[in-house]
Amino acid sequence: MNRLEAFLEWGGVRKDIICLVLSGLALLASIFHLLPLPFDPAWVAILLCGVPIVLEAILGLVTKFDIKADVLVSIALVASVVIGEDFAAGEVAFIMQLGALLEDLTVARARAGIEKLVRLTPQTARVVRGAQEITLPAEQVQVGDVLRVLPGETIPVDGVILSGQTSINQAVMTGESLPVDKGEGDEVSSGTVNQFGAFDMRASKVGEDSSIQRMIRLVQSADAGKAKIVSLADRWATWIVILALTAAALTWLFTGQVIRAVTILVVFCPCALVLATPTAIMAAIGNATRHGFLVREGDALERLSMTARIAFDKTGTLTYGTPEVVEVISALPGLGEKELYALAAAAEKRSEHPLGRAVVQGYERESGQSARQPEQFHMQPGRGVTAQVQGRRVLAGNRGFLEEHQAAPPPQALRQAEACLSRGCTVIYIALDGRYAGYLALADRLREESAAMIRQVSALGVLPVLLTGDHENAARTIADQLGIQEVHASCLPEDKLAWIGSYQEKNLPVCMIGDGVNDAPALKTANVGIAMGGVGSDIAVDAADIALVDDEVKELPHLLALSRRMMFVIKCNLSFSMALNFLAILLAITGVLNPVVGALVHNAGSVLVIINSAFLLKWRKRT
User: H-helix or E-strand containing 64?
Assistant: First the structure.
C-alpha cells in the first residue's frame, strides 16, 4: 500500500465516521422531535448512509448481476420510504453502515501488525560511487551497489557488510527484542534499523526481491475472501435474498398488510451471515501475525483446523540448521582438548567450508578470543585443509584425507568416532606433525523449544511425523529426543511428496513445515504448507501458505489451536445469524415486529457477530 492509497483509505474511514455521527444525531432528532424542520430529520441518515448502499446494489446488479445483501437492504429502504416509515429506513441505513465500519475497523486492527512492514519500507538509499555519496530512491538501487548506512537509518535493501561494526534492530523481521551485533561479512535485511555504528554494505537483493518486499507480498495476499466457507456464506446470502422477497410477497398477499412485508425485508437482510466469516478470519490472521505467522491464503487456517498429521523437516526446522562442535577428543599424550580445539580452529581460520567456519565460530565463542591466523594454508575441496600453525603442521579433514597423508586414525579411534557418527554427528579428524591427534564431532543443535512444541502438538491430537533427507541414524537420534514415533529418513524431494500423498489418500490432511528449497514441492502439495520465513529459502516461502517469520516453532501449537477456535467462532456466528433471522421473520409475519424494531433487532445481531469475531484478535488457549 503506497502513501496515496493509505491516505485514501483513511479518508474513506473518516468520511464514514462523519456520516454516521451526523446520521445518528439526525435519528435522535427524529425520534424525539428535537428540530422543527419541514421534513423528517431521518432523511439525513437515508441520504448519507442509505443512498451509497442503493447505488452499490444497483451497480452490482447491472454490471455483475450480483444479488447480495445490498440488494435486499436497498429494497427494504425503498419500501420503508414508500409506506412512510422514514425513521425505519434511516435506522436500517445507519446500522448497516455502522456494521460495515466496525468490520473495516476490525480488519484494519487485525492487519495492523503486518502492514507496518509497508510503512517501514525505506524510501531512499545512500549509494557510494567512487569518492561520492549519492542519495537515490531505494527502488533504483542495483545488485552490487555499495551503500552507506548511518546510525538510526533503516536499511534499504538486503546485503552484506563490507566494513564497519554495528548493532541492528531486527524486531520488524524476526521479533527479536535485543539488537544483534553485525560486522564485516554479516548479512543485513531491508526494513531493519541500524542502531549505533555506520557501515558500508554491498546490495545483494533489491526491489521486489528484498526481505521487506517479500513480507509485504505475503501481507497483500492475505485475503479472507479466498476461504471456502466465505463462498458458502455468500451463496447462502443469495438464496436468502430470494427467500426474503418470496416471503414478503406471500405475507402481503395473504395478510394484505404491506408493513409486515416491509418488516420481513428489513429483518431478512443477510448482513450478519455475510459478516460472520470474513471478520473471524481476518481477526484470526491478525492474532497469528502477533505470534510471528504471516498467513498468505485466507482459507489456510480453515484447512489447518482439519489437520491430522504435521510433517516436519529436520534441519533448520526442529534444529537450528547450523553445525556446532559437541565433542573434542585428544589422542596425543600431553595435548589437551582445549589446545587441540585451538589448533583445529587456527587451521580452519581461512576455510570457506561450513564445517570449518563452525569450528572457528565455536572456538571463538567458547574461548572468548579470536582463532590464531595460520602461517600457511591450503584447502583440498571435499577432503580437508593443511595449515602451518605456530610452526606445527596441522591436518583437519575426513578419514581418507588423513590416510592420504600417512596419519590414519587407529582402529580404537575409529570405533570411538563411530559412536558419534551413529548419533548423526559429523567428525573432523585432526593430525599434528604427521601423527593422528584426535577428532572434533559436530552436530546440528536442536532448538530448545522443539521438544515442548512436539508435546503440545501431540496433546492437540495431531500426530507429528519427521520427513528428512538426513540418514537414518541422525533422524532417529533427533526423533528420540523429541518423542516423534514416525520417522522417514533419507528422503529426496519426491519421497516427501510420496509420503504426503500417502497420508492424503488415507483422508488424513497433512501440514508440512520446512525451510529449504528441497521442501518447496512438499509445502505446495500438503494441505497446509508452513515455511520458516527467517532461515527458509525464498522458494520455500513462496510455496507455502503460511510463513513463520521469526522461526519460533514454539508458537505452532497456538496456531493450531487458533485455527480450531476460528472455525468454532465462525460456526457460532453462522448459527446465531441464521437463528436470529428466522426468529425475526416469524415475528414479522405475525405482526409482532414493525420495521423500526425489526431493524434494531436484525442489525444488533450484525454488531454482535463482529464483536464476537473481534475477540479472536487476542485469544490464546489457556494452559
Answer: helix 51-64
The span from the CA of 227 to the CA of 234, in Å, is 11
Query: How far is it, in rounded angstroms, from Cα 424 to Cα 478?
Result: 9
Residue from 40, 313, 444, 551 carrying the catalytic annotation: 313
pLDDT tens digits, one per residue of 45-75: 999 998 988 898 888 888 877 766 677 778 8
Long-range residue pairs from 284-287, CB within 8 A, at least 24 positions apart, any chain: 284/110, 284/562, 284/563, 284/565, 284/566, 284/616, 285/110, 285/111, 285/222, 285/224, 286/109, 286/110, 286/111, 286/112, 286/113, 286/616, 286/617, 287/110, 287/562, 287/616, 287/617, 287/618, 287/619
Tally Cβ neighbours within 10 Å of residue 587.
18
Q: What is the pLDDT of residue 169?
A: 77
Beta partners for residue 394, in sequence order: 387, 432
463-467 and 486-488 strand pairing: parallel
444 phi/psi in degrees, rounded to 5: -75, 125
Nine-digit cell at 73? 437492504
List the end-to-end C-alpha distance of the chain, in Å, as a whole number.
Answer: 38
Give the model confidence (pLDDT) of 222-279 as tens digits. 445 445 665 555 667 677 778 888 999 999 999 999 889 888 887 876 667 777 888 8
Instruction: Please give the model's pTM, rounded to 2 decimal places.
Output: 0.69
SS3 157: coil
Do the strands 384-389 and 486-488 form a parallel or antiparallel pair, or are they unpaired? unpaired
Degrees, nearest 5: CA angle 333-337-338: 125
Confidence band, pLDDT 50/70/90 cuts, at residue 301: very high
DSSP-assigned beta bridge partners for residue 324: 443
Give the whole-angstrom CA distance, residue 106 versus residue 13. 12
* Per-position b or e across 491-503, b if 16+ CB within 10 A of its CB: beeeebbebbeeb
- SS (HEC) of 285-325: HHHHHHCCEEECECCHHHHHCCCCEEEECHHHHHEEEEEEE
Q: Known catalytic residue: 313?
A: yes
User: Which residue shows C-alpha cell 474511514?
Assistant: 13
